[in-house]
Amino acid sequence: MTDHIETDVVIIGAGPVGLFAVFELGLLDIKCHLIDILPKAGGQCAELYPEKPIYDIPGFPMVTGQGLVDNLMAQIEPFHPTFHFNEMVESIETLGTPEAPLFRVRTAENGTTFTCKSVIIAAGGGSFQPKKPPIDNIEAYEGTGVFYAVRKMEMFRDKKVLIVGGGDSALDWTVNLQPIARRLTLLHRRDAFRAAPHTVEKMRALVAAGEMDLHLGQVSALKGEPPVLEGAVIRKDDGSEFTVDCDVMLPFFGLTMKLGPIAEWGLNLHENLIPVDTEKFETNVPGIFAIGDINTYPGKLKLILSGFHEGALAAQKVHRYVYPEKKLLFQYTTSSTSLQKKLGVAA
Amino acid sequence: MGVIHVTDRNGQRHTLEALEGWRVMEIIRDWGLPIEGLCGGACECATCHVFVDDKWLDKLHPPTEEEENQLDTVVSWPNSRLSCQIIWTPELDGLEVTLAPTGN
Predict the structure, then answer these.
(1) pTM, full prediction
(2) Which helix (H) or strand (E) holds B18?
(3) Exposure of A209 by Cβ count < 10 A (0-12 exposed, 13-18 middle, 19+ buried)?
(4) Using CA atoms, how far apart are residues A39 and A84, in angstroms rounded to an integer?
(5) How many domains does chain B have?
(6) Are A91 and A106 spatial neighbours (Cβ–Cβ below 8 Å)?
(7) CATH, residue B21
(8) Structural domain span for residue B91
(9) Is residue A165 predicted with pLDDT exceeding 80?
(10) To the nearest whole angstrom, how far is the Cα of A258 from the nearest Cα of chain B?
(11) Does the ipTM exceed 0.90?
(12) pLDDT at A1 over 60
């Protein structure tokens, strides 16, 4: 069953800039839904550097990535945005006219569809995807011998499994798959692991008991007639090589950002960025806006504060699409009773 | 003033003017070579991974544990470094690095 949702605006990307756009739209009585491929809000701030300090957010001498996200979530709470996590937008179909835009947005995972009057792309560097190691011909085995995530553990029963990596995903799946795999091998570049200590201990105990193998090195080549994987050539730091027999390899190298389906939405692109004007931050398609790190224009600075400004200006134009008959009165939150009512702070 | 030599993923070697205090990642990016530097130099993404020529390896500050943790997320070799963690100083005049391959 697929859901269909009607709303004013769909925001693609729930990073800091997408979140603040909710605030600027909310002040103008514009409702929105946010879609993000991650399981939580915050984008890069929450995924890449939650504990890292940021020093250039106006009014915050210092705030961490996660601290900024938490504050933005509190700031937009009065507008009750709806979040759709773990979903990636696959397509945007134009239904309306340039004067009265209307779009159908469809996600890949659940096939949820949205009908909306404007789309704001706040996708940063694109969508987070598992990092694919640069190993020759690895694509030829994807889906048969190479997997970047475990969806069903049963798929790996009685298989010779090679797990590559040293973080939580690699170690968690090592201890979870070891009991059902025919033989499990963990490969990492060094004898130090970033995973939870008790999981690392468990892995070490399994190695000590001879119930799995641990090797240090990197995969330099894959063996087997594609799509059937038969082994991986491991190169050690001293340059020597040996082969580990395996039916499946699970590389866990963390996440990176890829532009993904955005390239297929009929938008002008310049070096994987979306050109916009600097009055409305609108793309070449009327009604589709791009704000934050994903856009480009003369003088663009990839700063969070630039994205905040871009969202505020985009919201002004979105208002014209959502309420074509209404004149927009410019107001301040400090003095406007009507804005304060929306924020739930009116006296 | 000085230079760094950067070999791109097609094997072409570029000589880039370097500025003191700049991260090697920033020098490479400023000259327009394809280096992603997604996190902007925060040692959080490993998209500025380079291979350092063996004769230069010992002249660099050794990687911090934080950099080692990021090097875990790429196919790294003994001469792997994150170029955002190498601050250029005149002692590094002539530094030789190669852009590491990226997956698709």
Answers:
(1) 0.83
(2) strand B13-18
(3) exposed
(4) 9
(5) 1
(6) yes
(7) 3.10.20.30
(8) 2-99
(9) yes
(10) 9
(11) no
(12) no
